[in-house]
Specification:
single chain, alpha/beta, Lyase, Ornithine Decarboxylase, Chain A, domain 1, TIM Barrel, 9-stranded mixed β-sheet, 8-stranded parallel β-sheet, 29% helix, globular
Length: 381
């Protein structure tokens, strides 16, 4: 029974509210900018005959995944099985867990999910393949298996020369529901190299690893259906290589501060900032103002947020506070004033919030169009 004396945590606004009525701190999406970003990436992939499978770990929201699919994406990626389950519950029917799943209890959950949606999984070991096949018994569901290769990240992934052995192991378990989907080739370390030339060089090296893996498969008489990978910092280069057939970029949807600090790649669409933390000034000193959005409102692993629309600098104020200082000629905001922050890293910032507040008509004079739950918040298993 609900205790009437305990307040319920509610969204920061109601549909129809003006922007100024949004309580703070709040995670706000400029829906018009986001939709332009969705259209730009979908158009880029379509014009080049490439599949687009955006990474939903960025937004963790079934409604936003469905928007991307409606715009032309073939499905979405996630990194965690819990994310896949949350999005499937929200109506997303084509999901690729682009990560290794080894624990038996997780594989049991994955097997159940494979009976409900079109599902794929990355593997980089014979043990992973064997345990997946066992988990799908006794009534196997079909699942696409992508062999992850290490293309320079130094994280997960088999050596390119090992792929034939792994591919044969997948094919040998076709009766258990396993189907070879292709190669997973994602270079996360390339995404935030600041110059376009640095990112291009990193993807050129990644492409050599992909070529080696493809040659190894051909020598074993194995056809590779698809090479999938790429991120928001590098997708132009994977697209130009002629090797990747599917793009997994995710952060383009929101374009956080860290991605925006990259030098744009020639030929890349220009994405707009679409995700913001709305904060309010709660204190003022002689040379600084304090806002109510600290580390619990925005992730700091990729650096601090940037103040949007004003010549102000944001500095660390701790868990609940941010410190704002003016540049020469820029007055400090008044008590109660709104300060808009562009998060340094969108993915973990999203994971700190329960809801999005979607605004149409701009941050200055717009209105709340909808409130969307962050379905996979906290889905780290």
């Amino acid at each position: 029974m609900r205790d009437e004396g305990i307040p319920v945590i509610e969204p920061a606004a109601r549909v129809g509210d003006p922007v100024e009525a949004i309580d703070t701190p709040a995670l706000v999406i400029d829906a018009d900018a986001m939709e332009r970003n969705i259209a730009a990436m979908a158009g880029f992939a379509r014009e080049r005959g490439l599949k687009l499978r955006p990474h939903a770990k960025t937004h963790k929201c079934a409604a936003l995944a469905r928007l991307q699919i409606e715009a032309g994406a073939v499905g979405v990626c996630v990194q965690k099985l819990g994310e896949a389950q949350a999005l499937a519950a929200g109506g997303v029917r084509d999901i690729y867990v682009s990560n290794e799943v080894i624990a038996p209890q997780k594989l049991a959950r994955l097997a159940m999910l494979a009976h409900q949606v079109k599902l794929a999984l990355a593997v980089d070991s014979l043990q992973g393949i064997e345990q997946l096949a066992l988990a799908l018994q006794p009534s196997p569901a079909s699942i696409d298996v992508f062999i992850e290769i290490d293309v320079g990240q130094g994280r997960c992934g088999a050596a390119p020369g090992q792929v034939a052995q792994l591919a044969r192991a997948v094919q040998a378990r076709a009766g258990a529901g396993l189907r070879l989907g292709g190669l997973q080739a994602y270079h996360g370390g390339a995404q935030h190299l600041r110059t376009a030339a640095e990112r291009q060089a990193a993807i050129a090296q990644a492409a050599e690893s992909v070529r080696t893996a493809l040659a190894t498969l051909r020598a074993a008489g194995i056809e590779c259906p698809l090479v999938t990978g790429a991120g928001s910092g590098s997708f132009v280069f994977e697209a130009a290589s002629g090797l990747w057939g599917e793009l997994q970029a995710g952060s383009y949807l929101f374009m956080d501060r860290d991605y925006a600090d990259n030098e744009p790649a020639p030929g890349a669409p220009r994405f707009e900032h679409a995700l913001f933390v709305k904060s309010s000034v709660i204190s003022r000193g002689a040379s600084h103002a304090v806002v109510d959005a600290g580390h619990k409102s925005h992730a700091v692993d990729s650096g601090l947020p940037r103040v949007w629309g004003a010549a102000l600098d944001f500095t660390n104020g701790g868990d609940e506070h941010g410190i704002v200082r003016g540049r020469p000629g820029e007055p400090l905001p008044d008590l109660g004033a709104t300060v808009w922050l562009v998060p340094g890293h969108c993915d973990p910032t999203v994971n700190l919030h329960d809801h999005y507040v979607l605004v149409r008509g701009g941050l200055a004079a717009g209105r709340v169009a909808s409130i969307l739950p962050i379905d996979a918040r906290g889905a780290i298993r």
